[in-house]
Amino acid sequence: MTAALPRRAWAATHRFRPVLLILAALFLLFGVTQEGFLDATNLRNLLTGVSILWVLALGMTFVLISAGVDLSAAAIVALAGVFLARALGAGAPPGVAIVLTVLFGGLVGAGVNGLLIGRLGLSFFVVTLGSMTALTGIVSLWSQTETQFVTARLLREIGMGSILGIATPIWIMAATLLVALWIQHRTYLGRDIYAVGGSRVAARLAGIRTVRTTVVVYGISGLCAGIAALIAVGRIGAASPQVDNAIALQAAAAVLLGGTSLMGGAGGVGGTVFGVLFIGVLQNGLSIAGVQSFWQQVVTGVILVLAVLGDRISAAGGVRPLIAAARARLAATADRPSDTANEGSSA
Amino acid sequence: MSATEASARSASGAAATGAATGAAATARGAEAPHGAPQLLLDDVRKRFGGVHALRGARLALTRPGVVHGLIGANGSGKSTLLGVLSGQQRPDAGRIVLDGAEIALTSPLAALRHGIAMVSQETALAPDLSIAENVFLGGRLVRRRVRGIDWRASNARAAELLASLGLDEDPATPVGRLRPDRQQMVEIARALSQEARILILDEPTSSLGDDEVQALFAAVRRLRARGVSTIFVSHRLPELLALADELTVLRDGETVAAGPIADFDADRIVEAMVGPAVAERARARSGAATRPAAATAGSTTTTTASVPALRLRGVGAPGLLREVDLDVAAGEVVGLAGVVGAGRSELLEAIFGALPASGTVELHGSALRARDPRAAIAAGVGYLPPDRKHQGLVLQRSVADNLAMVATRDAGRLRAPGGAAERALVGEAIATLRIVAASPAAPVSTLSGGNQQKVALGRWIAARSRVLLLDEPTRGVDVAAKAEIHRLLRAAAADGAALLVSSSETEELLALCDRIVVLARGEVVASLTAEEASEEAVARFAGGHA
Ligand SMILES: Nc1ncnc2c1ncn2[C@@H]1O[C@H](COP(=O)(O)OP(=O)(O)OP(=O)(O)O)[C@@H](O)[C@H]1O
Ligand SMILES: [Mg+2]
């Protein structure tokens, strides 16, 4: 209640401080220079505009903590969208179809990615790249590349409606964040995910169910994709046959901006939220300013690299030590092109 | 104590005057043949948040070609000080003077340019590359303008370097196929190929068997003869006394004693390490920790009649273990001896289900069906892996998480961690093992090596495992803590636990075990009772089949 709490909260932000500061600066900049940026409607648009990214990035956070990436997240969104349209088309009541869609997403994530990576020990990159590609194809086949219109009122409410004056997607964002925070801080599952990401061998030797944890992690990512599918379908009133796989990468970028480590074992959903907001504010502010939206991508990419660089610089204790260390690493690998390695073994 | 402390103080006084006047040779000129010390680290300070890792540490290499021992309790700042010297850590304050000139070490590369090379404890070698490639890693293979790399010349030069260390391996052998101690030699060769004049070895012997230690010492002595200095950290006093020419003792980040090795003996070193008051208590305790030979020998014979806590029959793994039969009774501590590669680690892994193996493992009379770590843990087995950094701990996680990891493995996964019972468990483990950490919430990576080891061991004590498989239980642990861990293990045995302990230090097994089983090439070659066992007997059996 005293000054200790804010100080502790501030200390907890150290992993994603760069993006936090840049976000604050952007907010100020746009707030002062762009008329209408701080309007309630605009802020609402800003948030609903990143709602899909938000939900995906929260799921993706656990995947990254577990030392993986889910490249197939966006493909699962599209697939779950088609599933939803088909379920409704087959006469399922909207409430049931919605629940089934979310579960379907979770099942695809856990059953395909989770089992292949966890049980068979295949590389997450290969598996999710493969499932991304295959699922993208399946979306086209299943939808016959036609837009599947959805007219259920409930879905329109999810995508466009509001509860107590606040847009439904924002409620969904808040709810998923709360659940994600709960998993991260208040469950043994959360601890397992950190342990598995930190050291799979050590976790296994301590009796942690590493396979199950991995399956659950990709299941969580799939569940989030299922939830995102509801928002996506609800917003345009149809399931699109188009898959925008770049969204999965954007979600991973938001997670990284939020300070979660690609090496696993460290980070959290708190930072991810700011990573997503950064992308959202940039997108929104630039579009109000009339700047081409492509600039958002350029800036996001640059900031992502800069944020990681800043982290490394502070870890190394300055720019020069960082460069020196990098040079030492480079030098250490200079002798290792594949041809010389072959020669070496024959010598 | 007072003598060594006085010598440390006078030495630092002399260095201070030397620095103040800027003259190289002052009072020290009389003792040191080359005038000023070759290397001087003075008043080095380093803080990690609230932890003062170094608060005015000092280390001086009096001349080129000296072997300098560095010792201190766990967490006293040895690794941090050497991190500063090798450019891996930036000190908050302090001076580094090399050959009379103050230098700044901003990176490992900068240190290397000054001829200071650290041989890391985790070998930093590329296992698929040949010895020669590893030695000359970093673009230093012999090149010819047209043909590119001259492998013959490179290999010849590598062979020369290896020979100078007393090693006769083929330089084209992939490093991954070498024994750990040989890998370490390759790293040393690499340092030498970079013209290192000061070699830093942080606990190089902690994972080596007695033979390999001797080989390493021979290499260090060869280097000394060539004018290469070595700074050498070890918790094993006899080693230091045998090898070092001079010694620095750290306590709580401060240099409390320093001087030629002739000024020290084991008692005096321990006293300097822990302070006079604690030393008295530690002596009393380590006396209590030594095994009461007669009593335990008696208990062994009585317990063999009942069902053993751990019974192995025909445990084998292709190429690693052959038909191992072994019984460990409740209350018994059995040691596993043997050279590196004899199958000690593999046997423990096989019992724990971490290594696929044939044969049967029975616990208290019932066979272990599923052969995986979870099943073993459920049956009351605990396993301390030899490599705490990668296998024994999740380094980024907190001390508390790591300690509670095993005990809470079967709690509902959606339940909240950190309840009162768990906190009590963690608190108890920290107290009984005397783990020094900023707080239970501190990441385990911020603990000193010895304290990390205690956490890795503590999780099994917290889980109340009844059969403990321990691979190098006191690796990297200081003398006082080692005696404490031995006492804890004896207490666990007295409490009815069965212990199977593998160690590359025969001395440790002799102090701790009721019985010593010697392995060679994956086979049991001898089982020695406490009375039969001795350094010589163990070495005879271990070497006979190797
Ligand atoms: N990165 C870090 N962050 C926080 N504290 C640290 C860090 N590195 C070291 N420390 C602390 O600094 C102190 C000195 O640690 P150091 O590793 O130098 O000890 P040591 O003498 O090498 O011990 P050991 O014999 O156990 O290896 C310890 O209390 C340790 O917890
Ligand atoms: Mg150390």
CATH architecture type of chain A:
Orthogonal Bundle
Query: Separation of termini of chain A?
Result: 70 Å
Order the strands across the largest sheet of chain A as they lie in space. Answer: 1-4
Number of helices of chain B: 20
Please provide the ordered H/E string of secondary-structure elements of chain A: HHHHHHHEHEEHHHHEHHHHH
Instruction: State the oligomer.
Output: heterodimer
Pfam family, one (chain A): BPD_transp_2
GO molecular function (chain A): transmembrane transporter activity
InterPro entries (chain A): ABC_transp_permease (IPR001851)
Transmembrane segments (chain A): 51-84, 96-116, 122-142, 163-183, 215-233, 254-282
Task: List the SSEs and their pairings.
The complex is a heterodimer of chains A (347) and B (546).
Chain A: H1 4-12, H2 17-33, H3 40-49, H4 51-65, H5 73-89, H6 94-119, H7 124-143, E1 148-149, H8 153-160, E2 162-163, E3 166-167, H9 168-186, H10 188-198, H11 200-205, H12 210-236, E4 238-239, H13 246-257, H14 269-288, H15 294-316, H16 319-333, H17 338-346
Helix pairs in contact in A: 2-14, 3-14, 4-9, 4-10, 4-12, 4-13, 4-14, 5-6, 5-7, 5-12, 6-7, 6-12, 8-12, 9-10, 10-12, 13-14, 13-15, 14-15, 15-16
Chain B: H1 2-21, E1 39-48, E2 51-61, E3 67-72, H2 78-85, E4 93-98, E5 101-102, H3 108-113, E6 116-119, H4 131-135, E7 143-144, E8 148-149, H5 151-164, H6 180-193, E9 198-202, H7 210-225, E10 229-233, H8 237-243, E11 246-251, E12 254-260, H9 266-274, H10 276-289, H11 293-303, E13 310-317, E14 321-328, E15 333-337, H12 344-352, E16 358-363, E17 366-367, H13 373-378, E18 381-384, H14 388-392, H15 399-404, H16 420-433, H17 449-462, E19 467-471, H18 479-494, E20 498-502, H19 506-512, E21 515-520, E22 523-529, H20 535-544
Parallel strand pairs in B: 3-10, 3-11, 6-9, 9-10, 15-20, 15-21, 18-19, 19-20
Antiparallel strand pairs in B: 1-2, 1-4, 4-5, 7-8, 11-12, 13-14, 13-16, 16-17, 21-22
The complex binds adenosine-5'-triphosphate (ATP) and magnesium ion.
Adenosine-5'-triphosphate (ATP) binds at residues 48, 51, 53, 72, 74-80, 446-451, 476, 478 of chain B.
